[in-house]
Design a protein that fits this description.
Elements: H1 6-25, H2 32-48, H3 62-75, H4 79-86, H5 90-93, H6 98-104, H7 107-122, H8 127-141, H9 145-160, H10 167-187, H11 191-205, H12 207-219, H13 221-241, E1 245-252, H14 255-265, E2 276-283, H15 290-304, E3 313-314, E4 327-332, E5 338-345, H16 346-354, H17 357-361, H18 368-386, H19 392-404, E6 407-411, E7 417-421, H20 426-433, H21 435-439, E8 441-446, E9 449-451, E10 463-467, H22 484-514, H23 522-531, H24 537-545, H25 554-559, H26 564-573, H27 589-593, E11 608-610, E12 622-626, E13 633-637, H28 641-649, E14 654-655, E15 670-679, H29 684-694, E16 699-708, E17 711-720, H30 723-734, E18 739-744
Parallel strand pairs: 2-5, 11-13
Antiparallel strand pairs: 1-2, 3-4, 4-5, 6-7, 8-9, 8-10, 12-13, 12-14, 15-17, 15-18, 16-17
Helix pairs in contact: 1-3, 2-4, 3-4, 3-9, 4-7, 6-7, 7-8, 7-9, 8-18, 8-19, 9-10, 9-11, 10-11, 10-19, 11-12, 12-14, 13-15, 22-24, 26-29
Bound molecules: manganese (II) ion (MN).
Manganese (II) ion is lined by residues 63, 88-89, 154.
Length: 748
């Protein structure tokens, strides 16, 4: 093995000096033994990598030092990260083990190096394994975001030195970079690194385009500089006059973003008008607040140039979820050219360029909210990683998407801001606030208007979740939510509930069958499954368990072949539903139209009619009124207004309560109207009719539903046998997702 040559030694020593200096400048060493700690890592790396060279020919150890330099200088990471960066390739490429690292440094350093080592392994496997492996790796290291950041620094240095690689390797490495590292850097707010990675990728993948744009930027440089001077001069005068301590620069967009814009808008280079932006970075004074000072500068600028009304972005009041803070405004500069002006404090600029890592530097003055942003993102990553339902590929795609997703900011009624992913719904927000609120959500007041849980939220919405004790998660909810937290919670709940229901349902069915001396066997099951339109026995059990299927008519069902009513209603309500036993369907038709309740046990064999005004049903307290014309006895509820009026005027026609008794005859049905109110959603009518038709003792005569502004209001006329079965039905309707209020309509 070749040792280091004298020339190597000089090169390495220089790099190390550079790192030491950068560390001192960034105040990485707080105590003298901190320096010793880092120095030990340097010596170990140097020793471990001795005799190994990179493709460029330089000693390998230069690479970890460069990575550590990026970590300190460009990202602002601390001592542990510098050590982990120096050691990041030691375990993978040399004889040293994690135990060695743990012993020589600390278990924490060893675990960081372990994460980095595992991540390297990912990129050496084939793509399908890679997805699963990457997921596992992220799972192990997501506790420490520094590991991801160091990995990004590692990738940046590899990209900077990509020229030495053969072409096929360049393609592999740039692809990985675009696929994963760029979005990661973006999400972590490492803006400068993200831009550089993009530019480097483009340089190796689209060299001609890269060269062309670079050349054109150079060609227009003089002209642009002249314009920029003209633009800045009056601003400078005002800011100086107001004694601001600032730096004003013009920043040309990155090559990649110019190219991107040209492609996206299909325009030539010359038509990219926002080629540059003016950035004003200033030192804050203790008073007034940072924010106020930013607006003061904005005010100075817009006193000179008219601002574009639609292009003001206040990322100070509401920082981006990757931590970015600044005030952006586009103003009309000389010659009618729109120019973007960005106002930031020194601190904001640091965070903008170096991302979250810079927050640690400002910890003493960082608001808790900013730290939350990162914690929250990590939590989301962890939630997503823990979701066992997604395949590794799905996960990786979703994860990658989530890195790019725009965020929205939603407020609670008290004004607490919650950052949610773009596309989040009311239900996502409910789960964001609390699992319990999510599980019982039925809708929300979005900007004071009642909206269904399916509503997609927009930035600035104020959302007050409406809950109901009786509301429960439903399988359809999975289509409503986009956050992994909500998804996972619903899935867990459904799984638990379904299992409970299956067990309970099976026991309940066995007990019910036992009353008729029937044992639960395959034949009985098939019969019941057909009758209740269940595809399998688990569905049957769980519906029984959930109370969706009532077993009131079990005796009848065991005798008959299948339920005709159910089939009939499925057929009426859901066109295209296939039914069996059609020939029996007409038998029941009469009960549908027959509203007359004839009490055969009544003393004088009179004709009874149920009053249309109040629609009494068996179980209601009723009063009979003998209609003078027809002689029929009209049965009113005792509370009916019309009855009270009649009784007051024609008291002699009133039949005493004890003279009319409700018949126990089961064949007779009574009409009742039910009023339903809730949050509208596509399949609510279907769900309603399912619940209603699941109960054999109830038939539906009419259903009328109106929906406006996401609110669903309806009246259903039903034939019921008695008040108990009606109340049971009302209970079941209440369980339907979206139903807020159900009550019997009292037409009194
Ligand atoms: Mn490396």
């Amino acid at each position: 093995m070749v040792e280091y040559s004298p020339a190597d030694e000089i090169l390495i020593e220089e790099k190390w000096q550079e790192l030491e200096e950068a560390c001192r400048k960034a105040k990485v060493f707080r105590r003298e033994d901190d320096w010793q700690f880092v120095r030990r890592a340097f010596f170990l790396a140097k020793e471990a990598h001795k005799g190994v060279r990179r493709r460029s020919g330089e000693p390998y150890v230069i690479h970890p030092i460069e990575v550590a330099l990026i970590a300190v200088r460009e990202i602002g990471l601390g001592k542990k990260s510098v050590v982990a960066a120096l050691l990041h390739d030691v375990v993978e490429d040399t004889e040293y083990t994690l135990e060695d690292i743990s012993r020589i440094f600390s278990p924490k350093i060893a675990s960081m190096v372990d994460g980095l080592t595992k991540m390297s392994g990912v990129f050496n496997t084939d793509s399908s394994e890679q997805a699963e492996y990457f997921r596992k790796v992220l799972l192990t290291l997501s506790d420490d975001v520094r590991v991801i950041i160091i990995k990004i620094a590692d990738r940046l240095h590899n990209m900077r030195t990509l020229g030495a690689m053969p072409h096929n390797k360049q393609i592999k490495i740039t692809s990985e970079t675009i696929y994963l590292f760029v979005p990661l850097a973006h999400r972590l707010g490492l803006h400068a690194i993200k831009s550089e990675l993009e530019d480097l990728c483009m340089r190796y993948r689209f060299p001609e385009e890269y060269e062309e744009i670079t050349r054109k930027i150079d060609d227009t440089e003089t002209e642009r500089q002249a314009y920029i001077e003209k633009f800045m001069a009056p601003i400078r005068a005002v800011l100086d006059k107001n004694k601001f301590q600032y730096e004003m620069t013009a920043r040309v967009k990155s090559i990649y973003s110019i190219w991107n814009k040209m492609r996206r808008k299909n325009i030539p280079f010359e038509e990219v008008y926002d080629l540059f932006a003016i950035r004003i970075i200033f030192k804050t004074t203790p008073f007034p607040s940072e924010k106020t000072q930013c607006w003061q500068i904005y005010s100075c600028v817009t006193d000179i140039y008219k601002p574009h009304p639609d292009r003001l972005r206040d990322w100070i009041s509401m920082p981006k979820s990757n931590g970015y803070e600044a005030l952006h405004s586009t103003v009309m500069g000389p010659d009618g050219i729109w120019v973007e002006v960005q106002v930031r404090t020194q601190r904001m600029d640091d965070i903008a360029e170096r991302g979250f890592a810079a927050h640690w530097k400002y910890k003493h003055q960082t608001i808790a909210q900013e730290e939350d942003g990162l914690d929250k993102w990590l939590r989301q990553v962890r939630d997503a990683l823990n979701s066992p339902t997604e395949s590794a590929h799905e996960f990786l795609d979703n994860f990658k998407l989530s890195l790019y997703k725009r965020d929205i900011v939603v407020f609670t009624p008290k004004g607490d801001a919650h950052t949610m992913p773009y596309g989040a719904t009311v239900l996502d927000f409910a789960y964001e606030i609390h699992t319990n609120i999510g599980n019982h959500a039925i809708g929300a007041k979005v900007n004071h208007r009642t909206q269904p849980i399916t509503t997609r939220l927009n930035t600035g919405d104020q959302v007050e979740i409406i809950t109901a004790e009786s509301a429960r998660p439903k399988a359809e909810w999975l289509d409503v939510v986009i956050t992994s937290k909500a998804r996972q919670t619903i899935q867990d709940w459904l799984k638990g509930e379904r299992q409970d229901n299956i067990e309970y349902g099976m026991r309940h069915l066995e007990e019910s069958l036992a009353e008729y001396n029937v044992t639960l066997n395959g034949r009985v099951l098939r019969k019941l499954m057909a009758a209740y339109e269940c595809r399998n026995k688990d569905e049957l059990y769980s519906k029984i368990g959930a109370g969706i299927i009532k077993l009131d008519n079990l005796e009848q069902l065991l005798k008959e072949n299948a339920s005709r009513k159910i089939l009939k209603f499925w057929k009426l309500l859901i066109p295209g539903t296939t039914t069996t036993g059609d020939e029996d369907l007409d038998d029941d038709a009469t009960t549908l139209d027959d509203t007359l309740a004839v009490d055969e046990n009544a003393p004088h064999e009179p004709v009874f009619e149920m009053a249309e005004c109040c629609e009494p049903i068996p179980g209601d307290r009723v009063v009979g009124y003998r209609d003078p014309q027809s002689g029929h006895i009209i049965v009113h509820k005792s509370t009916c207004d019309k009855l009270i009026r009649l009784a007051a005027q024609y008291g002699e026609n009133i039949i005493r309560e004890q003279d009319i008794r409700w018949s126990q005859q089961k064949a007779v049905s009574y009409l009742a109207s039910v009023e339903i109110y809730g949050i509208d959603r596509p399949s609510i009518v279907l769900d309603l009719t399912k619940v209603i038709t699941a109960d054999f003792s109830i038939n539906m005569r009419a259903i009328s539903i109106q929906s406006h502004d996401g609110i669903f209001e309806g009246t259903i006329s039903l034939y019921v046998q008695d008040i108990d079965s009606l109340n049971m039905l009302l209970d079941n309707i209440r369980k339907i997702k979206g139903i807020e209020r159900v009550k019997r309509l009292l037409n009194t």
